[in-house]
hydroxymethylglutaryl-CoA lyase (Shewanella septentrionalis), 297 residues
Amino acid sequence: DAKDRVSIFEMGARDGLQNEVAVPTAAKIALIESLADAGLKRIEAGSFVSPKWVPQMADSADVLKQIQRQSGVVYSALTPNVKGFELALDAKASEVAIFGAASQSFSQRNINCSIEESIERFIPLMELAKAHNIPVRGYVSCVLGCPYEGEIAVSEVARVSEILYKMGCYEISLGDTIGIGTPQKARRMLQTVAERVPMDKLALHFHDTYGQALANILACLNLGVRVFDSSVAGLGGCPYAKGASGNLATEDLVYMLHGMGFETGIDLQKLALAGQAINTQLNRNNGSKVATALLAK
Ligand code: HMG
Ligand code: MG
């Protein structure tokens, strides 16, 4: 039944690769296609941001235009403003995502404006998306702390989440951008946000900097949340959050969920191989313990 099904939003090609050394477009395409082959149904494929800010994502249009698409798979892209939305539309992104923050300082450093200014910028984008029938996801960063401000009030996380939801985002992804949260704190944060946005419209986006992401997810699962963002091989981090490691590794998440009896639709072996190929390309160690174990067999 639906309670036992979990939806994973794969971040490797975007949140992952935005913070690794640039890889050739062909390698990104191969990664995305292999992720879909492994059973991922929601794949963030790139972002339409300033290439001066994030050069690693400058070829996102080529990536989206050249991938072989599978039916039933969503290929999404980050769009901070109308310009980004228009580029995403032209590249035929299946859906887009706007990204705000619960921290003023992070908002300034990440998208060069205050929280309030970012909301103003999102309004025309939301209108365009509605006119073109493009679903919009919303991210809130720094939900368990900020690299510049430290503690962030959960009331502020709930406030920003509710604004994005009421603007028309179909789902709000709560980002522990720097991976500093711990289980009780994560649970309390999710509970507070769920008073303002329905639980089935919420996703958790946990980075694994302090190795807490799986524990945090476990602490939140029985509140009813069923959507998680993760990154194959634990790729990436955040260019504006020094010391942040990648998202939780998708392989580690899938292994835990399958072990608990949840369905994900993902073939773990194929997923591990997809991660291994991009690791080889990047000449980096695998950020997934599960993949490391599986591939050593
Ligand atoms: P700005 O400098 O204030 O923007 O940056 P602007 O409107 O003044 O434009 C400046 C220049 O950028 C102009 O070019 C624009 O054309 C261009 P110029 O005239 O100088 O040649 N520009 C664009 N180019 C391409 N695509 C666009 C675009 N918009 C303007 N969409 C801006 C504001 C938002 C653009 C900039 O701050 C930016 O690109 N920030 C992106 C930062 C980013 O990508 N961060 C990582 C993603 S967020 C994240 O990882 C967190 C998340 O994973 C959740 C979590 O973990 O918490 C989602
Ligand atoms: Mg992130």
